[in-house]
Amino acid sequence: MKTCWQNYIDGTWIDGGAGWIDVINPGTGEKLAEQALANEGDVDRAVMAAHRVHQSGALSGLRPVVRGRMVQAMGRYLLDHIDELAKVLTLEQGKPLWEARIEVEGAARYFEYYGNQAETVEGRSIPLGKDYFDFTTYEPFGVSAQIIPWNYPVEMTARSLSAALATGNTCVIKTPELTPLSNAWFAQASEAVGFPKGAVNILCGLGHQAGAALSAHPHVNQIVFTGSVPTGIAIATAAAQNVVPCVLELGGKSAAIVHKDADLEAFENDVRWGIYFNAGEVCSAMSRVIVHDSVHDELFDRMVGVAQSLAVKPGIDQPEFGPTMGAMVSEGQRDRAAQMVSDAQAQGAIVATGGRKMNIPGAFLEPTILTGVTPDMTIANEEVFGPVLSVLKFSTDEEAIKIANGTPYGLVGGVFTSKLDRATRAAQRLRAGQVFVNEWYAGGVETPFGGYGKSGYGREKGREALWNYVQTKNVAIKLRN
Ligand code: NAD
User: Fold this and answer.
1) Inter-axis angle of helices 184-192 and 153-166, to 10 degrees?
2) Which of 32, 86, 249, 267 is the most buried (most CB within 10 A)?
3) pTM
């Protein structure tokens, strides 16, 4: 594997003005490679290149079907390179190799979906009587800045890049410091499918330096950010200074309500995926289970069984789909999660299983279940972003909803029951951008996703996300005789 990785600015691979950063393999704790860091000047060059391409009309002026085919071809490029890309993703991020392959396939799916829709972004005509002809069109904003988190670096970039390109925007991507390497394939893909030089720029840099410079750049016209609440606030503040829109996707503390009439055996699968996929480093993770008193003990035994069935080891040693989990992204994130478990214990929660750092090199935390959690505890309110599930109890439907809605977040929620009325009423009342009934992570690239409350605003995924990347123009024509 290459040891030094560069930034891709205006169609050229370059070092950056801010030195280099070590990229660590969290599966071993060893150095994997070095990534060049962009500084403010590099960010400026990338934004100005994207601005120039936008002004030229080389992208926005293409017939949408042509642009859409290029977007789709980017997805196929990722699939053609899945073996090498998934391996690098696993080595830098820690996830099992089979999960990395799923991530690359998911990324390709975004390019397929939005590439397909490029030619469906149609305006409408508005009747104003016989003396006028009036219509709307949707135009790209121009330069889309996209600041990417480390948990799904490939899928998160694919999600915003595909929609932005399909609608004719040019892009500057700021990759995460912990997992910058896998984003190189987007630069290669954009070149391979023939996007003009400067249409897609991929750079890494420190958040407070390159990230801040990008979000405050006067030629950035729209911003997409996924990450923590404090950074989201900083980015929205910078965007406000330039009066540009942003989409913020800021994580959550999402809850599954499990009623006594739920299929408890089937719920084991929801626990497996909901909190242990990607070692729980998922913004929409099922980090709380709120279970009815009467089935608590049975469900608890089942959940502990799931946690204990998972083999935890370096992602690269997990090529095949199965009951396995990888490392967290870094020792820092692992230690933060372990500390949150200790703090929860100090507040009265009980560690039913896991909770400890593993005694092997790398950023490993045991799959963890905390019971006896009450809504007032810190662990019930703050995002761990790791493989840590908090279990709370309820006795009435009203109480379950109140607990579920009791955090400042509102990304997703789940309700598990065999009663349609109960599920529908819960779906109406849960304060969340997406509600899963009887399957955590039901939905797909087609379904809109985003937060209520501190989980952010704007929507990614689905047809709805396209409207984040375009602005409406109305043309009113007075007809003369
Ligand atoms: P972060 O929000 O600090 O970083 C995310 C991205 O923002 C990175 O690319 C970073 O370089 C950039 N950034 C940081 N400061 C910036 C600034 N001032 N201006 C512009 N860009 C900036 O997140 P983190 O430190 O990597 O993780 C901290 C916590 O964030 C996690 O523990 C987790 O709770 C949350 N998180 C959530 C998601 C999600 O999917 N919602 C993803 C990653 C992290």
Assistant:
1) 30
2) 249
3) 0.97
